[in-house]
Amino acid sequence: MPPQVLAGVRIVEVAMFAPDAVGMHLADLGAEVIKVEAPGIGDPARQLGKPYRGESPATRRWNRGKRSLTLDLRAAAGADVFRDLIQSSDAVVEGMRPGSLARRGLGYEDLLALNPCLVFATISGWGQSGPYRDLGSHGLAFDSFAGLAPPRQVDGRAARPKGHVWQGLEAAPLYAALAIVSAIVRARASGMPSLIEVSQADAAATWNGWRIAHAAAVAEHGRAPSDPDARELVEALESSAEGAGHSDLPGSDVRYQYYEAQDGSVLLMATETKFWENFCRGVDRMDLFERWPGRRHADHDYGNDALRDELTNLFATRTRAEWLVFFIEHDVAGAPVYRAGETFGDPHFESRGLWLDPRVHGVSLLGSPVRVDAEIAVSDRAAPSNGADSDAVLRDVLGYDEPRIAALRSSGAVGGAQ
């Protein structure tokens, strides 16, 4: 039985594509998530990429653990069902363009009249305000905006990054899920409602916050300001930006660098004196430490080509696995370096048990990294087909009788499994 720390919490989700992950995170922790989908194809994520056995991997991942209710919110009868559902729910997730539910008379203010302690969370691309509010965007757009996906040159032309892993798209649902749980705690304690807003672009910018803050300080004060306070600020932010992996010259790092082993690359992270000394002692090269002891903390030893050559020769003497054993035995900070997709063969990854059960979810994908009481927090319900739970939700959650359900179905306000 998966962890049920959110048992007794009911979430109504009206979302599509990546904002679906908000409900996914909550369902993994045991919340009842009722996904309201439009008749027809429902959530367009069902059509994202090549389907596998009738469903896209995206919807199998993002919609796992949920129940699906097909409801036409443009129809008066469908909107009435939605209102009934809200009265016994803790939160609503609106994962579409800003104001989508409000345009149907189902916005935050409308629903508070029905549920005075409702948590209403809106997750959109650009947020509820600002000049880009109505700009249609998804996926890579938020990382490109935040400076996380700079262009590369291909055949003399600008091109998008190769192998880029979307960050704003994944980060925003995590922020939203945390805020929703926090707001529900407050609502149950005090009866206070909450209106939560999370923008995928904001999330991406926040994840690149050190670099953005440094660039803004340079724009205001210059790279080497004469004012001591401004100079201290610029230097501190520059150090933080580099420490967060945003050095302009990553190839000049020496003790925080990739090195080629016999069968691949490893990352050495001996920027603290302790780790650097442990490394030198472990390879029986204390002469390197005596010659270049460095500063106590966060010393990358930029541009030390002589040491770089020494380390290059040392790392070429062992395999990647042997270096990992060495790092652990001698307390040296480091890691294996894999190309995109290679991680699945790593013994540590295999030991962590992150795979979804394909017998339940229909495909082998990674689940939640959260553990509760030593158990992976992943729902044991597969992603539903559009409308698979319509009758059950109407009957068991709302208490509608069979004639009323049949009437809603015949009117087209409610749909069944697609």
Q: What's the arrangement of secondary structure elements?
A:
Blueprint: E1 10-15, H1 20-28, E2 32-37, H2 57-62, E3 67-71, H3 76-86, E4 91-95, H4 108-112, E5 119-124, H5 140-145, E6 152-154, E7 157-159, H6 168-190, E8 194-199, H7 200-207, H8 209-221, H9 228-246, E9 256-260, E10 265-269, H10 273-282, H11 286-291, H12 305-315, H13 320-330, E11 334-337, H14 347-352, H15 358-361, E12 371-372, E13 375-376, H16 390-397, H17 402-411, E14 414-415
Parallel strand pairs: 1-2, 1-4, 2-3, 4-5, 5-8
Antiparallel strand pairs: 3-14, 6-7, 9-10, 10-11, 12-13
Folded structure, characterized:
- This protein is of the alpha/beta class.
- The protein folds into two domains: 10-206 and 355-415, 3-Layer(aba) Sandwich (Rossmann fold); 209-337, formyl-coa transferase, domain 3, CATH 3.30.1540.10.
- Helices cover 40% and strands 14% of the residues.
- The protein contains 17 helices and 14 strands.
- The chain has helices spanning 20-28, 57-62, 76-86, 108-112, 140-145, 168-190, 200-207, 209-221, 228-246, 273-282, 286-291, 305-315, 320-330, 347-352, 358-361, 390-397, 402-411, and strands at residues 10-15, 32-37, 67-71, 91-95, 119-124, 152-154, 157-159, 194-199, 256-260, 265-269, 334-337, 371-372, 375-376, 414-415.
- It has a seven-stranded mixed beta sheet with strand order 8-5-4-1-2-3-14, sandwiched between helices. A three-stranded antiparallel beta sheet has the order 9-10-11, covered by helices on one side.
- A hairpin with a 2-residue loop joins β6 and β7 (157-159).
- α1 (20-28) crosses α6 (168-190), α6 crosses α7 and α8 (209-221) packs antiparallel against α9.
- The longest helix is centred in the middle third of the chain and has 23 residues, at 168-190.
- The protein is elongated.
- The two termini are 29 Å apart.
- The model has no long low-confidence stretch (mean pLDDT 88).
